[in-house]
Amino acid sequence: MKKGRRILLAGMAFLLTGCGGFEPETALNESREQLTAFFTSYEDDEVVADYTQESVTAFLEGDISNYFSENFKNELPGLVEQIPFEETHLNPFPDSLDFLGELENKVRWVEYKINNYEIDKDSEMVVFFIESKEFGINASSLKITMIQEDNNWKILSVDS
Questions:
Q1: CA 123/CA 108 separation, integer angstroms
Q2: Residue 4 to residue 17: CA distance in whole angstroms
Q3: What region does 142 belong to: left with phi over 0, alpha with psi -120 to 50, or beta?
Q4: Interior CA angle at 25 toward 67 and 36, to 5°?
Q5: Cβ–Cβ contacts within 10 Å for residue 72, how many?
Q6: Any bridge partners for residue 147, and if so which?
Q7: Exposure of 5 by Cβ count < 10 A (0-12 exposed, 13-18 middle, 19+ buried)?
Q8: pTM, whole model, 2 decimals?
Q9: Which of 7, 41, 116, 138 is positioned for an S-S bond with 129, CB 3.0–4.6 A?
Q10: What contacts 153, CB < 8 A, 6 or more positions away?
């Protein structure tokens, strides 16, 4: 009887450690790989859309949306509405869309590099601190929080 309990307990422990559970190192590696793929989806300064609400919305709802969590996708319409398409601004995009830039009525991709990270074991998230590859007045730093959704790491939020 004791041997049966030991086998049962060992089997349960094996199942609990092998089936799921948040593995910080795996989470970091997989989320970093996904974020790097996101930032290398386009060349730095590549034109990705016209500077119109329709074109920006179509771009954000296109293939690039595969990198976004459902929560972030739900925020996109409100973020696009904040962009002053009819006016000229130095930086017209809200911080959450700072991976985009505007020049000569074209929307351009802004590439970032990862500087640092934090792993939130309790919330099962990875937070990356990133910096644009640009220098000077156009340089910016962001914080991107990633979560696992449908077995893929996705962007939950982008903050300055």
A1: 33
A2: 20
A3: beta
A4: 30
A5: 21
A6: 125, 154
A7: exposed
A8: 0.82
A9: 116
A10: 27, 30, 31, 33, 34, 35, 126, 146, 147
- Angle ∠(9,15,19) on CA atoms, nearest 5: 155
Name the 3-class secondary structure at 18: helix
* pLDDT tens for each residue of 86-102: 877 667 889 899 899 88
Cα dihedral 68→70→71→76 (10° resolution) = 60
Predicted confidence band at 8 (pLDDT cuts at 50, 70, 90)?
very low
**Cβ proximity of 38 and 60 under 8 Å:** no
Q: In what helix (H) or strand (E) does residue 131 lie, and over which residues does it extend? A: strand 125-132
Rg of the chain over all Cα atoms, to the nearest angstrom: 20
| Element (DSSP H or E) covering residue 96 | none
Token duo for residue 78: 């409100």
